[in-house]
Request: fold
Amino acid sequence: MSGTARGRRPGAPDTRAAILASARTRFAERGFAGTTIRAVAGDAGVDAALVHHYFGTKDDLFMAAMQLPVDPREVIAPVVAQGPDGAAERFLVAFLGVWEDPELQPTLVAFARGLMDPDASRLLSEGFLPVVLQPVGVALGLERPERRMTLVASQVIGLILLRYVLRVEPLASLSRDELVATYAPTLQRYLTGPLP
Amino acid sequence: MSGTARGRRPGAPDTRAAILASARTRFAERGFAGTTIRAVAGDAGVDAALVHHYFGTKDDLFMAAMQLPVDPREVIAPVVAQGPDGAAERFLVAFLGVWEDPELQPTLVAFARGLMDPDASRLLSEGFLPVVLQPVGVALGLERPERRMTLVASQVIGLILLRYVLRVEPLASLSRDELVATYAPTLQRYLTGPLP
Reply:
């Protein structure tokens, strides 16, 4: 995870794990907005400065708590840097680069399966969307970024479920190029097209 | 469920329930194609004719095993009857008519949550798609109906998850008209537009 410092003192791994466990519980029970670094530190019996030391910002702590094999913010950053024109196609190429990686895919599929778990689903709706997706919409300068990014999410999550979790054919066998050509017009319209 | 006859003899409800339990197990373990009425009857210790008597065809038995509060084939039939032009908009209106019904929604949401369960997900990918969705693509006379209908499913399932299961805002608060205007162009392109 970016922004994550590794502890070097004896016993540090336990402290890191305790902070991470507290963070997961807090984020799940209170959502992203309702969780503070101070509260997580209190639950773990450590000082807030130590949480910052190990995990960086609250956004970074949240991403660590999600336990994803890649930080989606790092995947999306170069997509956003080039502006809204063609962003959907660039996003799909970057997205497939991660999801089609045989080393990453099993962990990502397990994560997607967990979306239906009540705890994890709150992490998604109250954390992942505001921390990862909404900043993308803002950085791209989109009009009504929340609406547009949730529309993007509604298509991408369905693709993940059918192709990677349920492996529904023929979707599971489409090539990367076919997927990009199929879904880029949908996502680009959600990003920048006319909407009600 | 359409095509379902109710038993009238004493003890019939137990027989119906036993057949349904056998059907659910078979469909989950063997998929739709790998399940026969004869095998379900054998598991339940009854004659195949009795399965037909209670549940009709194998498609009907499958829909009964899904335990949905409405038969999606009945919802989709009038959409299909008017042909492919405008089918996406008509589908969305019919779909929202069911999902926005406060009496039906809790059961539908529970069903959607169950999609991630390994048993139920096989029912979806190996049953729901071939029994409900593929016939729609064929009836509409679509070119490559399997591909097009799985694309439709990939958007509709994502919409269901974000709006009804996770209740992500602002998607959860969009009006029916906004949803139709937002998603109809996507679904119509998947049905009849140019695709790779």
Summary: Chain B touches chain A through 38 residues (CB under 8 Å).
